[in-house]
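Sat 14:20. Reprocessing the chain from the morning session after the first attempt stalled halfway. Input below, unchanged.
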Amino acid sequence: MIEPNRQGEVWVFAEQEDGSLHEVVLELCGKARELADQLGVGVGVVLPGRDVQSLAKPLFTHGADRVYLVEDDRLAHYQTGSYCRVMSTLIEKHRPQIVIYGATPLGRDLGPRVASTMRAGLTADCTDLEIQNVTDPRTKVEHENLLLQIRPAFGGNIIATIINYDWWPQMATVREGVMPLKEADTSRDGELVRESVELDESVLALRLIKRHIEPRKVNLKGARVIVAGGGGVGSKDDFELIQHLAGAIGGAVGASRAAVDSGFIGKEHQIGQTGTTVRPALYIAAGISGAVQHRAGMEESAKIVAINTDPDAPIFSVAQYGIVGDVKKIIPMMIKAIKEKQ
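Finished this time. Tokens:
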């Protein structure tokens, strides 16, 4: 643990693979810029890797004031020990007050290790971050400008707000897609700070023998049209209607947690607080009641069409167009109309 530094920067860990930044990094840069402006401090980004200096420019255009560049051939591929050494060394040196990571498989591995090394707290899978004054209910002491780390808990049934009063830096992993990707400001520039971190054999315990990269089967975040089915679809066989409609209009297939838990489709298709957050041009919600956990992951879609037998279903509160009816009757009619038009 390091002593709280009220003037410390807001940091983002820049996850990259083979010289390409993960999209969540740029999303977090925009959020870090917002938090830092509230605190009156700068935004720093830690960029470890091999030959990755060219990645600094997009970090600046998305809100970073400083990029801490650590280039080393031994950082070409991610290892927990070496990347943890980089982060913990730079945290001790520069003392940021907030450090955020993407809640990717890599970020979920690195964040807790750094938090353990620094003896600091970490909140996983946040869906929002805010700055606010907080009074400790135990001591009645008011703490100014703390980071509120907001995330779903108990399987998404409640929303928890977690606060670190004195175990700094305040650290969190943030789910992909929950922070809007802000437009790049190409006029922005920043300071490139070259750092050197000692990496000994104790943090390089693994040797990469072979890499196998499995391509992503579904890209919900990048889809402009999504057809999502819920528990109200009825069965795994009936869920094929969702897939047929998505195929007819060239969209991706999504699902609510109820549909995934029922085994209708795999978890990679899940949308909501415990799945993927999406903002497509068109979102068709079929047989989805619209619980708050699901709406949080899709309510910023440009156009929402809801199909449900219950006219009082919460999904209609966020839909521009609502159809009250059975999906097993409505969807075949939609598919027929689309094919006839084509």
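Residues 10-203 form a domain with the Rossmann fold fold (CATH 3.40.50.620).
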